[in-house]
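Exercise 7.
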Amino acid sequence: MGGDHGPSVILPATLQVLARYSQLHVILVGDQIVLQKILSRHKKNAVSHRLTIHHASQSVAMDEPPAQALRTKKDSSMRVAINLVKEGKADACVSAGNTGALMATARFVLKTLPGIDRPAIVSTFPVFNSHKKNMRMLDLGANVDSSVENLFQFAVMGSVLASAVDNIPKPVICLLNIGEEDIKGNEQVKETAKLLANSTMNYAGYIEADQIYLGNADVVVCDGFVGNVALKASEGIAKLIGKAIKQSFRRNLLTMLAGLISLPVLKSLVRRFDPDRYNGASLIGLQGIVIKSHGGAGVSAFAHAIEEAIIEVDKNILQRISAEVEVLLNQG
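Solution. The predicted structure, written as tokens, is:
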């Protein structure tokens, strides 16, 4: 029921993914009357029999304070969906709803993995590197005052995720900083660097913000405040470039002609860096798989968020993180 578009986007996206994965079953959690009305338009769909509805009488508003949602919305679609994961009736939860409420509810219901103090938000980003498809970055906003221990734990979880999901044997870990030199950064970053350097992880040192998209790191670790600022700045620059290109090609007849000639290249770039392909951030560190979709996601983007959940379930990501976290944290 969450996100900017609610079930009008989520249901078609779900049907798309059901068609691609024959073993998938999906529970739609929300207002039964609303969901059945939309589903009735797809009754002839060959995969709708693998789709069930679980009624929830409440929903969480996108601007609702997390504490209020946790306290007063015990039958919200978000809370019920996470409860289904807790009870083992679902393998993962995917939501486009209120990020703060989703994190607060998931942490309250599922709890964190042993050895993990705080969960983090981790997502995938494209890189300019012919040898690598993407990199992962965390934390992207779950924690705005992370300790040294938190940052080390983020690195552990990011390393395991990149290894398990992206099939990278020894993921390269970098710590986001204001410079590459050892003397740069605050005490939090410097102390975290010492822990990482003394661990068995493949730690490669500091990385600056202008380097994170070059593909030199498989996992970039940072505080949630820093990570969220970097994320939003990147999104803003992408929008700026997109608008500037459109404006430039529409300037006159000659530039419009140039735009038509370069259209195949532009379309290729759009496909490569399409944000829909990178939708679906993991709330990592919980005793259950929870994927956060962008609130403004369309059908294609939300489908990718569901697929991220499928991959993490198939790769037994929780079991692998639990095992590796125990080993690496003891070494750290």
